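Long-time lurker, first post. I've been practising inverse folding by hand and with some scripts of my own, and I keep getting stuck on stretches where the structure tokens seem ambiguous. Below is the full token string for one chain I'm working on. Before anyone asks, I'm not after the true native sequence, just a reasonable design that respects the backbone. If someone could post their per-position residues I'd love to compare against what I wrote down in my notebook.
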């Protein structure tokens, strides 16, 4: 099973960006709160900041430990990971020793490395499924696909380095010394092309990732109704479960209708309770919230009404909830929105969010009644 930490270490090996530990000391003068580390970028999570005379030593390359007892002020310190600027909450008194211990890298911070991996995984296996039909996640990513994901992430990281080096210009001194700084950009672009070709070759041979061969089904449109004909996933001969409808992407036919309300789609599992935490960009004081689920816009039947609890009125925080009984009766596809009305102005109404509600059929059902909603038999 692949983990983000394991993939991060392997990606750093590909980039030659292995972390190194450091220990650095500063002397307080009673007024200075900002100190510049000589090693950066650093990993702010592991950084230790000790106020007072102490010895700090590395037990092993993976962990730094404070040897003697002093005041740990790591929680009240802030660090700019890229520039190595350490800011303390208060200025240390004169002659107070500030000891900083941590880990630094050559190019990227941990958050950047993980961001490259997450983007690479989404692009590489975003629409991929396992042999059993389940969506592939980082936890069940096949081992043979881990290295292609690392290669794709390495390509993204190299593009970042190439962008940085593109701002460099050649230096020519009067004494004839010439420093071709633009050569670094050319070398990086050559390396990027090699990595891209390596990724393409692996994906082609393994039939995975962005270069795999996929079988697609096009939507048919009924000439009588001008509606799409539903497409269902093929099933094995002995598979007696309910057919699963495919959610084939629908083109917008170059529709220029502007979107005036933000869209948020809800995915439910039939029979499970559901909770959605919302942050509104304004105070909810003096307003009432209402959110419903219907089969289509204008339908008379309300399929479900969310229980809305305002958890922090001043900061605009609210929670939407559905019970297990409510989700059992929902269709596979429906729509929802949330509306805000004023308690003082009867003419004020605002739709804050809208979207589609997709409900997946459950497997385990405590109700064995074959006529119960969602029962599969």
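-- Answer (accepted) --
I ran through it position by position. Result:
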């Amino acid at each position: 099973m692949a983990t983000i930490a394991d993939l991060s270490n392997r990606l750093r090996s590909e980039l030659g960006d292995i972390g190194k530990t450091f220990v650095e000391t500063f002397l307080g003068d009673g007024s200075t709160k900002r100190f510049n580390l000589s090693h950066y970028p650093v990993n702010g999570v592991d950084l230790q900041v000790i106020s007072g005379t102490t010895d700090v030593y590395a037990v092993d390359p993976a962990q730094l430990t404070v040897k003697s007892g002093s005041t740990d002020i790591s929680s009240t310190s802030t660090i700019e990971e890229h520039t190595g600027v350490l800011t303390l909450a208060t200025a240390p008194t004169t002659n107070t020793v500030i000891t900083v211990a941590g880990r630094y890298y050559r190019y990227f911070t941990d958050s950047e490395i993980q961001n490259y991996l997450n983007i690479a995984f989404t692009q590489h296996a975003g629409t991929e499924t396992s042999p059993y039909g389940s969506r592939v996640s980082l936890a069940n990513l096949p081992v043979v696909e881990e290295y292609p994901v690392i290669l794709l992430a390495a390509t993204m990281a190299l593009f970042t380095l190439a962008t940085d080096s593109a701002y460099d210009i050649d230096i020519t001194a009067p004494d004839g010394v010439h420093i071709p700084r633009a050569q670094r950009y050319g070398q990086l672009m050559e390396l990027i092309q090699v990595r891209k070709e390596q990724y393409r070759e692996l994906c082609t041979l393994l039939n995975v990732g962005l270069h795999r061969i996929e079988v697609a089904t096009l939507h048919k449109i009924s000439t009588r109704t001008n509606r799409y004909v539903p497409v269902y996933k093929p099933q094995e001969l002995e598979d007696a479960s309910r057919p699963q409808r495919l959610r084939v992407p629908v083109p917008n036919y170059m529709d220029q209708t502007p979107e005036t309300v933000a869209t948020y789609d809800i995915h439910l599992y039939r029979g499970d309770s559901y909770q959605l935490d919302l942050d509104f960009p304004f105070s909810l004081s003096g307003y009432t919230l209402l959110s419903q689920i219907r089969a289509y816009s204008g339908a008379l039947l309300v399929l479900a009404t969310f229980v809305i609890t305002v958890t922090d009125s001043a900061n605009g925080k609210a929670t939407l909830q559905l019970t297990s009984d409510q989700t059992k009766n929902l269709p596979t596809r429906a729509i929802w929105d949330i509306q805000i009305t004023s308690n003082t102005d009867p003419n004020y109404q605002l739709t804050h969010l809208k979207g589609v509600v997709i409900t997946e059929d459950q497997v385990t059902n405590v109700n064995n009644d074959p006529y119960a909603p969602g029962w599969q038999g």
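A couple of notes from the structure itself: The helical segments are 4-15, 110-125, 146-165, 183-206, 324-328. The mean pLDDT is 87. Happy to go over any region you disagree with.
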